[in-house]
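Pinned message: reference record for Carbon-nitrogen family hydrolase
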Amino acid sequence: MRASLIQIAVNDDKAVESVNSRRERVSSLVRAEAGVADLVVLPELWTTGAFAYELFSEEAEPLEGPTFEAMAKVARDAGVWLHAGSIPERDPEGPLYNTSLVFSPDGELAAAYRKIHRFGFDKGEAVLMGAGEELVTVRLPETVAGVTTCYDLRFPELYRGLVDRGAQTLIVSAGWPERRRSHWTLLAQARAVENQAFVLACGSAGTHAGVPQAGHSIVVDPWGAVLAEAGAGEEVLRVEFDPAKVGVTREQFPALKDRQLGLAAPTRRA
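Predicted structure (C-alpha cells):
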C-alpha cells in the first residue's frame, strides 16, 4: 500500500495566505499524488493552524462546508483515499468540534471523527471545542484504519479500543509543537509496538500563532521500526508498506492475546 503524508506548512497570517488560497494549494498537493499514492493524509486544523485559537470560531464551517467540498473533489480527481486532516466544525445544534474527514476515491465521505481528547487543559481547544464521543475506523481495500488526532496520541486506551474494533493501521493527524517533538516520535513508536499496528502520523510545519511546529511526520511498522520520517519543513513523505505484516506480527508474537482485563482492585493489607 502506498501512502503520502503531506506535511503542510501553515502560516496563520492572512496577509500571507488566506484560508481559501490554502485550500487551493493543498488541493494541488493532493492532486499531485494521483497515481503515486493509494492513501493521502493531511495534518490537523491546517485551514487555521492548530494553535490559532482566535480563528477557530471565525473560520469554523459546517461539516459539509467549503473544505469538505474541496477535499471531496480532490479525492475524486486524484483517485485516492484521503484523510483530509481536520477542520473546526460548527455544529448548528452544539459547540465547535475538531473534526477529521476521510474520503473515498469516488469523493464520498467515508468517515468523520470528532477529536476526543482536546488539548489546552483550561484554555484553547479544551474550552473552545466540544469532545467527541465515538471511536472511528475506516475499512480501506487493504487494511482497517483507526482515525485519531494529535493529543489523542498520549492516551493508549483509545488506540486499544480501535484495535478491538479491528484497526490494523493507526492514522494520526496532528499539529504537534516543536518543543515536544521527542514525545511525538516516542509515542508514535509506542502506539505501534503496543498495538502491533502500523502508525501513520502526519504533522504540520510552520508556526501556528507563534508556536513552532514539529514537522517530522513519521511512519512506523508493527515492530516499532521507523519506515520513513520527514524533516521540519513542508514536505510530502511517501512510503510503501505491506498491511499484511500486521497479521503476521500478531501471529508470530501474540502479545495481544495475553491482555488481562477487568482486574480487581488491589486488596488492602492490614
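Pinned by admin. Summary line: The chain has one domain: 2-255.
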